[in-house]
Design brief:
This protein is mainly α and 218 residues long. It has 8 helices and no strands. 73% of the residues lie in helices and 0% in strands.
Length: 218
């Protein structure tokens, strides 16, 4: 008799309910925001990579389960991205409000989402590296941040190629440069800073708990 131990079937059931709820939330939000976006062609371009990620997570679910925390972080980022895709990143109302409140020179929403990319996705990336590659110690904190920077740069390249091949006239709106020639570099720096912050927090929490932060599937 395993007194005090959680029933694996119940834990798995709760996990499945959470994942179903997250998928339902994103599906409903995505569908709602798909109705009359500010620029339909830009919306289509923005969702190419997003839907690819969702499909990849679904197809690989049986072979690799992220932790519930990671799925929540991924869903949070996808929510921000869905909003940005609906309005185009340069025209999100929240960004204009922040621009007025803080007297900024541009709509900062796209920069916020790039920062969120690092903050929210560094932990899931770390989870993949620790569980599949067996990373331990400081490497398990450094490499996820490095991977986020690499991914951010790769996405900037992919986005520029897609914009050029699919719809060159939408280049500025799709990339969200807002006239800043250093926009890509600043976006990459924002993502990297977010990842460093996330990994620093993970490291501190690991030390505070006295246990290595090696994620489980629950």
């Amino acid at each position: 008799m395993n007194v005090g131990l959680p029933d694996p079937s119940r834990v798995e059931s709760r996990s499945n309910r959470l994942l179903s709820s997250l998928l339902l939330w994103y599906g409903l939000l995505w569908t709602w925001l798909a109705i009359a976006p500010v620029d339909r062609r830009d919306w289509l371009l923005e969702n190419l990579l997003a839907l690819t990620l969702v499909l990849l997570l679904i197809l690989t679910y049986q072979r690799f389960h992220f932790s519930n925390l990671s799925y929540c972080l991924i869903a949070s980022f996808m929510t921000l991205h869905a909003v940005g895709a609906h309005y185009t990143y340069a025209e999100v109302p929240l960004g204009f409000w922040l621009k007025d409140v803080f007297s900024l020179s541009r709509n900062p929403f796209d920069r916020i989402v790039h920062f969120a990319y690092g903050v929210l996705l560094a932990y899931p990336v770390r989870e993949v590296l620790t569980r599949l590659a067996g990373l331990v110690g400081l490497w398990s904190y450094y490499l996820p941040a490095s991977a986020i920077l690499t991914q951010s740069g790769l996405f900037e390249i992919i986005e520029s190629i897609v914009a050029t091949l699919v719809s060159p006239e939408l280049g500025s709106a799709y990339l969200g440069t807002q006239g800043d020639e250093w926009d890509a570099q600043k976006d990459m720096a924002s993502a990297f800073c977010g990842a460093v912050l996330a990994m620093t927090f993970t490291f501190v929490m690991s030390k505070a708990s006295g246990k290595p932060a090696l994620p489980s599937t629950l």
